[in-house]
Design goal:
This protein is of the alpha/beta class. The protein has two domains: 191 residues, no CATH class; 192 residues, no CATH class. The protein is 63% helix and 7% strand. The chain is built from 18 helices and five strands. The chain starts with a helix and ends in a 5-residue tail after the last helix.
Length: 443
């Protein structure tokens, strides 16, 4: 028994020594999980989280405004002052809200700019306001004075009513109901509007002083003499975005195509070359009358064929199942596809230039691919990261590839828009491949 225990102790020590002799294993088991936790922690830090929402002024006719007892400075749309009142009111109400859905951060945009931001994943919800923020207080006071039994009627009850042309909602929320981030955004907006309705002191403190003076001098309800109170409009109406480009699946598919190119090249070129070195096959090839550049280029051509077939399968699946389509130039997409393969084949050659074991190959490939998949906005927007890091992230090869692919797929980008990103990817591949060739270990 003593001999068995002694052998167990010795063999266990041997296994531990072998474990710590492999730097790749140490990195993969100890350092990498902590790094991923740190990256995701930075991306989603904050209690509560900050939720970006685009605020857009919708056109409202003067008759709609007069029916509410509100005078517009412009007969067509809310002016800049009224929009900023909405922004301040919603952000302050969200800050005071007791809900845990997160604090909203309002960005004032034009409608086209807001739709483009949704396509790019910067925001998940567009709030279109039809009436001034004062309409919330007027609605509430009318409901209480004319219908005392409705004084406790909350936003959640009135938000279910669909809007009509004669009775517009105060706020229209446009979002993709299938996106969890968009559902969180609509919940945060509902909480902020509910807070504004039940907190008249907060609403009055955020209104323009001249507007308050005009309303106080005109009567408690601001109705014209002899005017009949208009029906109370719904405060919030949800409008699901089903247009091509506004859905989460439209954001996801181009990113998956980009990460497919990266993984195919890194595992096919980088991992494959290290495997040849470990099996001593590369030494035999190097000793033959073979051009080394032709040997490495052959790996690029083979990977290109595989990535084309993978892309066709993924796009065909997404097109027939989710109606995903390419809005931009096919020539631009093919150019981007070619340059993306050049870029990641070059990175694969550089990463495989010194590795001498399969443990090292696994560590190198995963150390490159997994962090970039997290950072480059494949599954969620990289705008979740701090602003100082976004300037770095947007120039990463995978980010350039994914952003340009999305621009072609959902924004209708052409060859001119894709040319500079493609040249950046091409230069990345040529530079990394040149460095890899200079330091390459052929034996």
């Amino acid at each position: 028994m003593k001999q068995w225990l002694a052998q167990l102790k010795t063999l266990t020590a041997v296994n531990f020594y072998g474990y710590f002799r492999e730097p790749a294993i140490i990195f993969w088991a100890l350092i990498f999980p902590a790094g991923i936790a740190g990256v995701l922690g930075v991306a989603f830090q904050g209690k509560p989280p900050e939720i970006p929402i685009a605020l857009v002024a919708d056109t409202a006719s003067s008759s709609q405004a007069e029916s509410m007892g509100i005078s517009h400075s412009s007969p067509k749309a809310l002016d800049e002052v009224q929009i900023r009142q909405w922004k301040n009111a919603l952000e302050e109400a969200s800050r005071r809200s007791a809900g845990d859905s997160g604090r909203i951060k309002i960005e004032i945009m034009e409608e086209e700019e807001a739709r483009l931001a949704i396509k790019r994943g910067r925001i998940y919800l567009m709030a279109k306001v039809n009436l001034p923020v004062a309409s919330l207080r007027i609605n509430r006071s009318r409901a209480i004075s004319s219908h005392p039994d409705r004084s406790q009627k909350t936003l959640s009850e009135r938000a279910a009513k669909p809007s009509s042309k004669s009775q517009p909602a105060v706020v229209e929320a446009h979002y993709d109901a299938n996106n969890p981030e968009a559902r969180l955004s609509i919940l945060a907006l509902q909480q902020a509007l509910t807070r504004l309705e039940i907190d008249p002191v907060l609403l009055e403190s955020l209104e323009d002083s001249r507007e308050r003076g005009r309303q106080s001098s005109g009567g408690s309800e601001n109705l014209q003499d002899g005017a009949k109170p208009a029906p109370e409009p719904p405060v919030l109406v949800s409008q699901e975005m089903d247009a091509i480009g506004g859905r989460y699946i439209d954001f996801l598919i181009p990113g998956l195509l980009a990460v497919g190119i990266m993984n195919s090249c890194m595992w096919g070129v980088g991992y494959g070359l290290i495997d040849l070195r470990v099996k001593k096959l590369m030494r035999r090839m190097a000793a033959s009358p073979m051009h080394k550049s032709a040997f490495l280029t052959s790996h690029f051509v083979a990977r290109m064929a595989f990535t084309i077939s993978e892309a066709f399968i993924l796009f065909g699946f997404a097109h027939f199942l989710f109606d995903v389509s390419i809005q931009g130039s096919l020539v631009a997409l093919l150019l981007l596809f070619l340059c993306g393969n050049v870029a990641w084949s070059g990175v694969g050659i550089l990463c495989s230039s010194r590795g001498r074991s399969m443990h090292t190959a696994n560590g190198i490939v995963n150390a490159v691919t997994l962090p970039l998949t997290m950072l480059s906005g494949i599954f969620f927007s990289y705008h979740n990261f701090p602003e100082w890091s976004q300037a770095i992230i947007q120039w990463l090869p995978l980010t350039v590839l994914a952003d340009t692919a999305r621009a072609i797929f959902i924004e209708g980008a052409g060859l001119a828009q894709a040319l500079i990103p493609s040249l950046i990817l091409l230069a990345t591949g040529l530079i990394t491949a040149s460095i890899g060739l200079k330091i390459y270990r052929w034996h």
